[in-house]
Design brief:
The protein starts with 7 loop residues before the first strand and ends with a helix. With 127 residues, the chain is an alpha/beta fold. It contains 5 helices and 5 strands, in the order βαβαβαβαβα. 31% of the residues are buried. α1 links the parallel β1 (8-12) and β2. The model has no long low-confidence stretch (mean pLDDT 92). A 5-stranded parallel beta sheet has the order 2-1-3-4-5, sandwiched between helices. It is 45% helix and 21% strand. The longest helix is centred in the C-terminal third of the chain and has 14 residues, at 113-126.
Length: 127
């Protein structure tokens, strides 16, 4: 899908296997992929590349800076960026927490890769 070429996507995930898998999936989909292993690094990568990053996928249970706070900080820097929060922990109000922090969507883990790709495309085509 060449229409995705040069569209930046930031993946913030502390599980290296999930981060590598998602990065490869979105590279195959022709996105320019940025990665971070914790919330602090995610914020720094976002700040450094905010002009290129159109969408952020972040885990919520991150070391150093939690995912909800990361969403709030990124949203304050670039209100137009699309943000998807994710978690494998099934707290009852977790989707509401993500949305209240400024996230656009919550996707539970384990990921259904096709659904994640569909959601990313929907957000980027609607923007």
């Amino acid at each position: 899908m060449s229409e995705n070429h040069n569209v930046g996507l930031l993946i913030v995930e502390d599980d290296i296997e999930i981060r590598i898998l998602l990065s490869e999936v979105f590279r195959i989909e022709q996105f320019e992929v940025y990665q971070a292993s914790d919330g602090e690094e995610g914020l720094n990568v976002f700040i450094a590349h905010q002009d290129k990053i159109a969408l952020v996928i972040t885990d919520l249970g991150l070391p150093k800076l939690g995912g909800v706070e990361l969403i709030e900080r990124i949203r304050a820097i670039k209100p137009a960026v699309k943000i998807i929060g994710s978690s494998g922990y099934g707290r009852i109000n977790i989707r509401e927490e993500v949305l209240q922090a400024g996230g656009d969507e919550f996707i539970p883990k384990p990921y259904v890769t096709a659904e994640l790709i569909k959601t990313v495309r929907r957000f980027l085509l609607d923007s």
